[in-house]
Inverse folding.
């Protein structure tokens, strides 16, 4: 440092010194200004982001490792007469696990002995014998003397398995399904038990258009002997089976078989007389798209009137309705008329004369309990109280007097109660998740918003999760979570739905997280809504998702459409790829997890239900394949896949990877070794994957308001 003695300076020197001082002061001020405005600000922003990521990782560990956001469930079994229930619980006095029985009306508790359980089998109606699968064959074991009888025997060297074995009501016979996989092509898979010398395992895989498993239904005497094979017509392309059960009202002489065509566009119920071997058709329906797409949830029928009539759900009039049909096919009564869907059946209370089902006529994001008279008289009645908007699930007692009632919303964890069904009076709370409710109430600063987006010819449901420090006067980047296929919805007013905990964490990083249900999702909005994607999974969903996003930007000023990211898993991963490739000016960042960019390489069971095969629908498969539109990629794309996939095989994705390389498109590709479709096995996997996504998002779509 330089010191000046002003007493020794002359005027000229004084001027020079003053000038030097001025320059030094200006320089110091400039340095200080630069240091204050540039250096510390950058460090602060970087530190802030690192701190945010540290908090995010800690929160993810709470979610996926520690289970801190997991709601407690209640599980019990009703007594056969419906007067009470049994539950496994910890005894407060002995601190040991006991089975307790509760009276439904009074709540009186009695500790009972644990039921003896027989591993790996199901008991005969009299409880004296058990049916087991051993060494790929069916056996009956007598519990009184341990005598074992082998019922099936594969002697022709074919790849056979047996499924759905069920006792007849009188315990004399067993019906089962034989599955012959021999003609299904083998797929080679590496078994990485030794890094240097991995083994190869071959598994059966039925791809779109390839041979599927051949099915037969057989009936065998419980004492063994020859199997009676039902004469069910088997077309060359194959077929699928739904419900296989014995006739109603304890009928041990007839077997019911629900049969679907390979493309699920034809359904029929067959009745087989096991005495004569005769098989007759009892019910038939067809649709050019598909008969029913809710997987197993609404297939099958329920017998009533001592087996002389049955209840079946059908979409043949454009809505999923319940019908009572006479066994001879001469009578049919529509139980649930009107333009609304049944979501799922709940119970038939024949003694009380009611059919119970779930529905939500006015809101496709919620679910309530309804009932209607079995004779078709009177109006449908809502059982769930009108002042409880959200999602409700019921487990009714056999006598339909009581129910375990679980109620939640997207932001409020479930509460489970015992209710009296006649007036929905709460008898006692069985699980209230009080701690989690209080935790979420403090965490969620802005309730999740459910909105409807009118894009002209259709109105779609959407959900919006906002940051905790949300400022409605600012604009926020948008992160869209998409699925968009017939297997599920993402917009539901239900607890822990659609990656909710993860999305709340992402929102708190400075994003508005949005999800939209386009047509084709299984919302209770009519068959036309669900079947709109028939023949092409990908094109319509991409158009409607983009249109919905534009409408959201038009109606919500805080949505910044210049900063949009999208992500999805499985079918949602496919829709993410389609969004990035087909709508590159709408979406700027995409993360596709476990996607299937080449649908013709996917499994026949799922894909053919909605798109048939390439011989029948070549154009549909061409238009649905994201790989065919990869040249449109402009934004930043991250692809994540598990190399151990048994669902969307890694080779389906690697075809797209090669295409992007050929096109010279920049992208990032993350493989998780030996992980399957859920990419969750192995310590740290779930947290690592979601942190990887979060970092990629922050790097390529900066967070925070503007």
């Amino acid at each position: 440092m330089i010191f000046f003695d002003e007493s020794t300076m002359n005027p000229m020197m004084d001027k020079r010194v003053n000038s030097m001082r001025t320059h030094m002061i200006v320089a110091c001020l400039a340095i200080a200004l630069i240091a204050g405005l540039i250096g510390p600000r950058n460090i602060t922003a970087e530190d802030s982001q690192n701190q945010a990521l540290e908090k995010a990782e800690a929160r993810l560990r709470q979610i996926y490792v520690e289970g801190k956001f997991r709601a407690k469930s209640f599980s019990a079994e009703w007594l056969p007469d419906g007067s009470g229930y049994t539950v496994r619980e910890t005894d407060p006095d002995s601190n040991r696990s006991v089975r307790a029985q509760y009276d439904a009306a009074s709540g009186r508790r009695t500790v009972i002995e644990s039921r003896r359980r027989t591993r790996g089998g199901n008991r005969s109606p009299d409880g004296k014998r058990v049916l087991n699968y051993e060494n790929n064959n069916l056996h009956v074991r007598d519990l009184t003397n341990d005598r074992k009888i082998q019922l099936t025997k594969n002697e022709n060297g074919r790849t056979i398995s047996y499924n759905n074995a069920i006792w007849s009501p009188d315990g004399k016979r067993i019906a089962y399904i034989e599955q012959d996989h021999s003609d299904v092509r083998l797929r080679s898979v590496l078994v990485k038990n030794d890094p240097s010398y991995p083994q190869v395992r071959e598994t059966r895989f039925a791809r779109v258009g390839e041979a599927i498993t051949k099915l037969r239904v057989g009936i065998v005497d419980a004492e063994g002997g020859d199997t009676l094979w039902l004469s069910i017509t088997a077309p060359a392309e194959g077929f699928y089976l739904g419900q296989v059960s014995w006739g109603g009202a304890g009928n041990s002489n007839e077997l019911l078989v629900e049969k679907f065509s390979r493309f699920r566009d034809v359904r029929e119920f067959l009745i087989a007389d096991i005495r004569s071997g005769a098989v007759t058709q009892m019910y038939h329906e067809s649709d050019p798209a598909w008969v029913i797409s809710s997987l197993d949830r609404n297939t099958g029928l329920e017998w009533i009137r001592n087996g002389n009539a049955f209840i079946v759900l059908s979409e043949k009039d454009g809505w999923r309705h319940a019908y009572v049909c006479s066994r001879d096919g001469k009578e049919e009564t529509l139980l649930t008329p009107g333009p609304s869907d049944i979501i799922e059946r709940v119970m038939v209370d024949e003694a009380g004369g009611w059919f119970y089902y779930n529905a939500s006529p006015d809101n496709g994001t919620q679910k309530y309990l309804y009932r209607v008279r079995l004779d078709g008289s009177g109006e449908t009645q809502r059982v769930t109280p009108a002042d409880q908007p959200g999602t409700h699930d019921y487990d009714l007692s056999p006598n339909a007097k009581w129910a375990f009632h679980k109620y939640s919303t997207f932001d409020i964890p479930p509460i489970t109660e015992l209710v009296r069904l006649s007036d929905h009076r709460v008898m006692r709370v069985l699980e209230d998740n009080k701690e989690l409710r209080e935790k979420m109430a403090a965490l969620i600063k802005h309730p999740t918003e459910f909105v409807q987006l009118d894009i002209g010819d259709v109105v779609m449901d959407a959900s919006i999760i906002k940051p905790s420090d949300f400022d409605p006067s600012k604009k926020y980047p948008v992160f869209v979570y998409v699925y968009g296929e017939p297997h599920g919805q993402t917009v539901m007013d239900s607890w822990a739905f659609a990656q909710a905990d993860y999305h709340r964490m992402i929102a708190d990083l400075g994003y508005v997280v949005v999800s939209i249900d386009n047509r084709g999702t299984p919302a209770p909005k009519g068959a036309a809504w669900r079947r709109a994607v028939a023949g092409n999974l990908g094109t319509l969903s991409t158009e409607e998702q983009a249109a919905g996003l534009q409408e959201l930007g038009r109606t919500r000023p805080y949505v910044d459409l210049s900063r949009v990211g999208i992500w999805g898993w499985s079918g949602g991963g496919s829709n993410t790829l389609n969004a990035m490739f087909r709508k590159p000016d709408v979406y700027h960042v995409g993360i596709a997890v476990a996607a299937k960019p080449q649908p013709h390489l996917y499994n026949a069971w799922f894909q053919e239900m909605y798109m048939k095969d390439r011989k029948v629908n070549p154009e549909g498969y061409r238009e649905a394949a994201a790989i065919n539109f990869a040249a449109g990629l402009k934004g930043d794309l991250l692809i994540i896949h598990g190399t151990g996939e048994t669902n969307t095989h890694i080779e389906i994705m690697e075809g797209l990877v090669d295409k992007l390389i050929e096109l010279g498109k920049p992208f990032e590709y993350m493989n998780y070794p030996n992980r399957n479709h859920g990419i969750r096995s192995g310590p740290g996997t779930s947290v690592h994957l979601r942190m990887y996504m979060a970092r990629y998002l922050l790097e390529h779509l900066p967070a925070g308001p503007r």
